[in-house]
Amino acid sequence: MAKLEQIAELPDGWNGPHSKAVGIPVQNQYVAFIARFDPVSLDFEPMPTPAGGIRMEWERTDFDCVAEFRPDGGIYLCALGESEDTDIEVYVPSSHGIDRLLEFYRDPRSMDV
Q: Under a CB-based contact definition with an 8 Å cutoff, are residues 53 and 68 in contact?
């Protein structure tokens, strides 16, 4: 949680004049997500985005995965496979976010559309 505390302290303009601070709703989404895990098992670190979101990256068999909590409440999910044919990219509205992210975290293929 120390990393989240550092992210929470970043002001508007932390990465240039147009970058945004990470708001409380985004922080709460991240906390709700990691609360479902044993902290020792987490294989990602939160990173701030210039748009005011929180990004996470991790690897799964055959995929490099990205999830980003967006300030609008939605979650962007992306899994890069061995080729463009296997890449997966999905935007999940806030109403389904955490549950869909959990599925994606465990198996990126669960989001294949």
A: yes
